[in-house]
Amino acid sequence: MSDDAEQIRDVVQDEALDEIPPAFTGEHPIVIRGLRNCFGDQVIHDGLDLEVNRGEIIGVVGGSGTGKSVLMRSIIGLQIPSEGSIEVLGRSITDAQDDDDIDIRSRWGVLFQGGALFSTLTVAENVEVPLKEFYPEITDALRHEIARFKVLLSGLPEEATGKFPSELSGGMRKRAGLARALALDPELLFLDEPTAGLDPIGAAAFDSLTRELQETLGLTVFLITHDLDTLYEICDRVAVLADKKVIAVGTIPELLALDHPWIQEYFNGPRGRGAQGAQDRSKAMDNQRAGKA
Ligand SMILES: Nc1ncnc2c1ncn2[C@@H]1O[C@H](COP(=O)(O)OP(=O)(O)OP(=O)(O)O)[C@@H](O)[C@H]1O
Ligand SMILES: [Mg+2]
Fold it and tell me: Which residues line ligand 1 (CB under 6 A)?
């Protein structure tokens, strides 16, 4: 950790020690039971169960419109389910009162599908929004420094701090959204389609960054994606959403052993086989390099 980062951490800890809850040490930071979500007559989820393991990157897949984003919104309390229970970091979201809500919201970070950056704020100002909301007592200078640090942590150059979202490429916007999601040092990171619209090199770089952050910061990552390369490269397990439920959760080989038609079509279709082949080749090259070294 850099001197800057250490200094920031010390000051933040001194100033806000009472407000920082202890990190979650249980096995499952997200537990969903019997979830039902409807919009009018349209039933999106019915009897959906899911447990996420602490420290894993869980990929969430499913056809377009199966309710992946609605599921994420339910977990973070933006969509009130009609039935079922959701616990996040040991606290009930479905029964949450306002005060509880505020406290728990500071412990996750979210990259929404499409980015959801404030277009009239610079990248740094976007990152400062959650800091202002949850830690209004932090001085301006310290807040600027924390925002700068998060922007750099997300792999953006220093100059990006002063740019507006419209001045960034799609990939840079995703990184800016990530910087904002990391603003409060979350335990849980939600990423909704983080690599959609990125070129393959940009997508692979974003995947590596996600894995690196998960490992170094000890995050649990809930990652919604259609990107088969992402699933093969960085996800520890994959949850499959179909028929209004999570129909299976497991490693990709475990999923491949199931004979559900959607799962077979998805992972064993031409694109699925392509992604698997690419990963096999990349592993073979790594082994070759390791052998030569
Ligand atoms: N606020 C809302 N009001 C009414 N219907 C909604 C609302 N939000 C989502 N829906 C509907 O819920 C269904 C699931 O939407 P959701 O956005 O979760 O899909 P998704 O799995 O994330 O799809 P994609 O892969 O295209 O992002 C869709 O039919 C959508 O139209
Ligand atoms: Mg979606």
Answer: 39, 44, 62, 64-70, 113
